[in-house]
Amino acid sequence: MNQINARRQIETELTELIRMAIRLGKMSEESLTRAVWALKNQNADVAREIIKRDDAIDDLASEIDMACMQFTARFQPLGEDLRTVSSLMHIAVDLERLGDYASNISKAAIEVADKELMKPLIDIPRMVEILSEMLEKSLEALESKNDALAYRVFPLDDIVDDLEKQIMRELLLLMMERPQRIEQATLLLNVARTLERAGDHITNVAERAIYIITGKTIKASAYRRPKEH
Length: 229
Hints:
It holds the Pfam family PhoU. This protein is mainly α and about 230 residues long. It has helices at about 5-40, 45-75, 80-110, 125-145, 145-150, 155-175, 180-215.
């Protein structure tokens, strides 16, 4: 294979790897969003579907990992190509983790499906709306090679963190007022913490997207307000 044809093949395969990562991200986003919907609406059937779907997410993440390793073995990439393929392997891990979180939230949804919710769920669905926006921006940045979109993810994670803290304060107060609801309150606290961790993984995706596009290694913390101590 001559140099020009080899370059075309490399670009074709990298484009396909990015498409696979974007597909994985969209699958994970849908599962996470539907898991919270199932929790809010106490729909055990939807929750079970999401748990079953996690196998497809895991399979695609493994497929991306294998394709990246095969690409590396064939082309022995350097520079930008190596930066892209190594980052995509990390991105696949973060996106696969979102699918695991969706399964965990779905299990919580099944647990409360036949019980009265201690309060209407408002902030948890709001968290997942912001997470969805964060992931959409990260994936669009990756697809369009527009790093400005990825930078817009970082302040959104501050909002997710604020909502998690607000949920925690509210549920702790409810537990003190109504000790008989401690079990359900703890379950909802775990859901909020799970979504907060999902925000961290999406932030990782945005950081990696910037690295692929610009070659700059940045930390989201430099573009967000300082953490409270």
